[in-house]
Write a structure and sequence with these properties.
The structure holds two protein chains of two kinds. Chain A is α/β, with parallel strands linked by helices. Chain A is 38% helix and 22% strand. Chain A has one domain: P-loop containing nucleotide triphosphate hydrolases (Rossmann fold), CATH 3.40.50. In chain A, a hairpin with a 7-residue loop joins strand 1 and strand 2. Chain A is globular, with a radius of gyration of 20 Å. The relative contact order of chain A is 0.15. The model of chain A has no long low-confidence stretch (mean pLDDT 89). Chain B has two domains: 153 residues, no CATH class; 72 residues, no CATH class. Chain B is built from eleven helices and two strands, in the order H-H-H-H-H-E-E-H-H-H-H-H-H. A two-stranded antiparallel ribbon of chain B has the order 1-2. Chain B is flat, with a radius of gyration of 24 Å. The chains are: A alpha/beta, B mainly alpha. Chain A: It is a peripheral membrane protein.
């Protein structure tokens, strides 16, 4: 069974009281996210990627089509809280998603809402903070933490609800490079070690490269889908969509255009070094 | 500098008083205030002062913190004292500048009132200095819980207080940033009279309010995504427990109250 299944989803932003003027945000999205997968969704600003993310845990409901989370339709109001505890969500601004004045109290917020017994919450909070390597900061005030640390606390807050999937909506957009690295490493570890399904919405191509699968969205439609190597090979198409290409991919593309006999699916610096050294 | 503002002036520590259940502390502080106003003679105040000093020593609060608290309202105390001393009818003892009469009963009353105000401030400071804002909120929520049935929104009040406390440093930071940004563009916050200064703050307040509303919106979304649906069926990680020391404190306080009530007859 898929973790999340998106079937022909349409979504309109109503700009008018009469629902007359409609801005199309999503236009017939079909997508399947398997259990334990790490999927990156990329697209330029206004492509609809954040709107799509908000469909995964029933913050938004599709105007047309449906979203199924572990067999439950997101429009099923009775299971709303089941869906939200299964699919956790981390947002862009780390400051605006931390509720409490102490780190561990904030991590406890989710399980407290679910009505988990006190001793069990204590255990979950400690486990979650250990998983994101923030246990040493359990008693700190969140305003004293760096951006990357705050975002890890936010991830711990979701983890404490024991979700099977975490959706991260541009979690690194407001962080500095070192904070970005911290968060990405945490996400990858959770995916590998805990087997949590990860959906990462991002516009950093270097982050998307780390995923098992990349989905490119433009104007509310899925335009490209596949493993990173295959997707990023299509340098010209991505550029046309207003997206960047990982640096090494771009370099390989340019070198080929200059007539150099080099593979076009080079993603990392190491691969590029290897490829260049083997040139005759 | 703007960051120095702390709400409640909590002084971390692990004294006997610090470790008391916040519910017990809030209730006792409340009763203490009532007692202060029940006392009607100087012997009674001696008892209260002795008890208060004992609590302050137990809590290991440096005296300077208490003086700071009193300093803030010293003019209020002097003002009430002078009014009481001059406006209460009675035998005139002396006239200041041959004009303002000080009466014997007035001076008595003035001393009582200043004593009451000072003890009131010291007593409530002991509460806020030894209880962290978060346990204060917790304590208030649980004390108000029984009144939920008559429509007191205990959980909502506590949640609002928690969020307010959480966002004070964030918004102070933001104010700092906006002020610097406006200063970089030539805004002047230091010159002019009060009205001009207040007017100059408008370009700071407008963006601050807009951002606060945006934050509130995002926070509400994040809370819903984490399954927040009000106080119903909610559990808490930290449970408040009364233990032996709370009973000792309550017993000591009862003894103190009895002495206070008896002291009303010592005149």
């Amino acid at each position: 069974m898929e973790m999340i299944k998106v079937e022909n989803v349409h979504y309109f932003y109503k700009k008018d009281i009469n629902d007359e003027v409609k801005t199309v945000a999503l236009e017939g999205i079909n997508l399947e996210i398997k259990k334990g997968e790490f999927v990156a969704i990329i697209g330029h600003n206004g492509s609809g990627k954040s709107t799509l993310a908000k469909h995964f845990n029933a913050i938004l409901l599709p105007d047309n089509g449906r979203v199924i989370v572990e067999g439950i339709d997101t429009r099923d109001n009775e299971h709303l809280w089941d869906i939200r505890s299964k699919v956790g969500m981390v947002f862009q601004n780390p400051d605006n998603q931390i509720v409490a004045t102490i780190v561990e109290e904030d991590v406890a917020f989710g399980p407290e809402n679910l009505g988990v017994p006190s001793e069990e919450i204590r255990k979950r909070v400690d486990d979650a903070l250990k998983a994101v390597e923030m246990i040493d900061y359990a008693k700190h005030g969140p305003h004293l933490l760096s951006g990357g640390q705050k975002q890890r606390v936010a991830i711990a807050g979701v983890l404490a609800m024991k979700p099977s999937c975490i959706v991260l909506d541009e979690p690194t957009a407001m962080l500095d490079p070192s904070g970005r690295k911290e968060v990405l490493q945490t996400i990858k570890r959770l995916n590998m070690e805990e087997g949590i399904t990860i959906v990462l919405i991002t516009h950093f191509m270097e982050e998307a490269v780390e995923a098992d699968r990349v989905v490119v969205i433009s104007d509310g439609k899925v335009v490209l889908e596949g493993i990173p190597r295959e997707v990023f090979k299509k340098v010209t198409l991505l550029k046309k969509l207003g997206l960047d290409v990982p640096q090494m991919m771009q370099l390989a593309h340019d070198l080929r255009k200059e007539g150099l006999d080099i593979n076009e699916d080079i993603l990392t610096i190491e691969e590029m070094v290897d490829a260049l050294c083997q040139l005759k | 500098m703007i960051k120095d503002i702390t709400i409640g002036q909590y002084l971390p520590g692990d004294s006997f008083i610090h470790k008391l259940d916040p519910r017990v502390k809030i209730l006792l502080a409340f009763l203490y205030i009532i007692l202060i106003f029940l006392i009607n003679n100087f012997y009674g105040y001696l008892v209260v002062i002795a008890f208060t000093l004992l609590v302050v020593m137990l809590a290991k609060i440096p005296i300077k913190y208490l003086f700071n608290g009193i300093k803030g309202v010293i003019w209020l105390i002097i003002f009430t004292a002078v009014l009481n001393a001059t406006l209460t009818p009675g035998k005139v003892i002396f006239k200041l500048f041959n004009l303002i009469p000080f009466t014997d009963k007035g001076i008595d009353l003035a001393l009582f009132m200043s004593m009451r105000l000072i003890l009131l401030i010291v007593g409530t400071s002991v509460l806020t200095l030894t209880t962290s804002p978060i346990s204060l909120t917790d304590g208030i929520e649980r004390l108000l819980n029984p009144f939920k049935k008559i429509g007191v929104p205990a959980h909502e009040l506590a949640m609002m207080m928690t969020i307010a406390l959480r966002f004070i440093p964030t918004l102070l930071d933001e104010t700092d940033k906006i002020m610097k940004a406006q200063m970089a563009r030539g805004a002047d916050f230091d010159s002019g009279g009060i009205i001009k200064k207040a007017k100059n703050l408008i370009p700071v307040l407008v963006p601050l309010f807009i951002s606060a509303f945006r934050r509130a919106d995002e926070l509400a979304l994040a809370m819903e995504a984490r399954c927040y649906r009000g106080g119903e069926n909610r559990t808490r990680m930290k449970q408040l427990k009364t233990d032996k020391r709370d009973y000792i404190a309550i017993a000591a306080f009862i003894a103190f109250s009895i002495i206070c009530i008896i002291s009303r007859r010592w005149r």
